[in-house]
Specification:
Layout lengths: L2 H38 L7 E6 L3 E2 H10 L6 H10 L6 E2 L2 E6 L4 H10 L5 E5 L5 H11 L4 H8 L2 H6 L14 E5 L5 H15 L2 H9 L4 H14 L6 H14 L6 H8 L36 H8 L8 E4 L7 E4 L2 H16 L1
Length: about 350
């Protein structure tokens, strides 16, 4: 066989091998390109996705959860990125995470690995008792209501903050706050202490001092105003009335304090027998203010005390039209007429 014949005979297999080799290279380049591009591709299905992790878990398990929740456009691409970054077994700390639509796989993985949580909004609402507050806050954060309640009843801890078991509820201000979902009960209270100190700036302390009140006494009086009226325009009038009573050395005789002393908030009516309750919160029996707030007042009620309306009123009674407003009086006789009108309306 001649050299030319041998060459022709082996030319076809060489062409096939060459083509296969080129196909393999192209396929490999395509796969590598796809693999690396998936790292930087946006991969969140919805504009914003939130996930709460009660405990730490691996990124591999997290990928399963994200796929189950249909949070990813391409779960396979997310898993390929995990392998590429060698992060399958990396642990994701417990917390609240937020995925945004423009995030790539790599950004998501780095966020989870570093535990870069997104803060949550926590609303502190009106609450009368520590247990009520603890239950409301625990629904919004990771810790239990019992764990928060233990700190609120820890005398040594409360004392270290400059409060006592009567005044500790005054540390809280109705508002919306941003914080991490995994914050501890202790740190939550410390955060509220900072917000308290920020609110009670020099100007507000000066306004309180003009009325011979401490910040906590303002809060305590504001809590009574809060319970007396839901009408914002009436709050400064109510605050002025109670300040008048304090200045003259009269007992406040505020019905909300009787309900607090009784511990029954289901009925808004106060009966004569209730006025005899022996309690340091019953302002029909004690002089001055009760030892602490009877609820967490709104900031508008606090401001109503700081900027109370100057007037001569000493008495108040609910209006008989059930509008939620009150009739105010200077004298006991005027007040008695208002009271009788209210009683007649109730009987009807």
């Amino acid at each position: 066989m001649s050299f030319l014949q041998i060459r022709k005979r082996h030319r076809k297999p060489l062409k096939i091998i060459t083509v296969l080799f080129l196909v393999m290279i192209i396929a490999g380049l395509w796969y590598v390109n796809r693999l690396y591009n998936s790292v930087f591709e946006n991969n969140v299905r919805i504009p914003e996705y939130e996930i709460y992790l009660d405990h730490s878990l691996s990124l591999r398990d997290l990928a399963d959860r994200l796929e189950k929740d249909q949070a990813l456009l391409d779960a396979g691409a997310f898993r390929r990125t995990l392998k590429l970054m060698k992060t399958d077994d990396a642990r994701v700390p417990a917390g609240h995470y937020k995925l945004k639509q423009e995030m790539s796989n790599r950004e998501m993985i780095n966020m989870f690995r570093s535990g870069a949580q997104a803060p949550v909004r926590v609303i502190v609402r009106k609450a009368r008792l520590p247990g009520d507050l603890a239950e409301d806050i625990a629904v919004q954060l990771r810790f239990s209501s019992d764990s928060l309640l233990r700190w609120l009843r820890d005398t040594a801890f409360v004392d270290s903050l400059g409060f006592d078991l009567h005044t500790i509820m005054g540390i809280f201000l109705q508002d919306t706050y941003e914080m991490y979902w995994t914050i501890t009960p202790r740190d939550f209270i410390l955060r509220m202490k900072k917000e308290y100190e920020r609110y009670w700036n020099e100007k507000r302390r000066e306004e309180a001092a003009k009325k011979n009140l401490s910040p906590m006494e303002v809060i305590t009086l504001a809590s009574i105003v809060e319970e007396e009226t839901a009408k914002e325009d009436e709050k400064p009038v109510v605050a002025g009335l109670y300040l008048n009573r304090l200045r003259r050395g009269w007992r406040l005789q505020a019905d909300p304090t009787v309900r607090f002393a009784r511990g029954d908030f289901s009925s808004k009516r106060v009966y004569l027998r209730d006025l005899e309750a022996e309690s340091e919160y019953n302002t029909y029996k004690i002089d001055g203010l009760p030892p602490g707030p009877i609820c967490i007042p709104s900031k508008s009620s606090i401001e109503a005390v700081l900027h109370a309306e100057a007037h001569p009123y000493m008495f108040m009674c609910a209006r008989p039209d059930f509008s939620g407003y009150h009739n105010f009086a200077r004298t006991a006789s005027q007040h008695e007429r208002n009271r009788q009108a209210w009683i007649r309306a109730l009987r009807k």
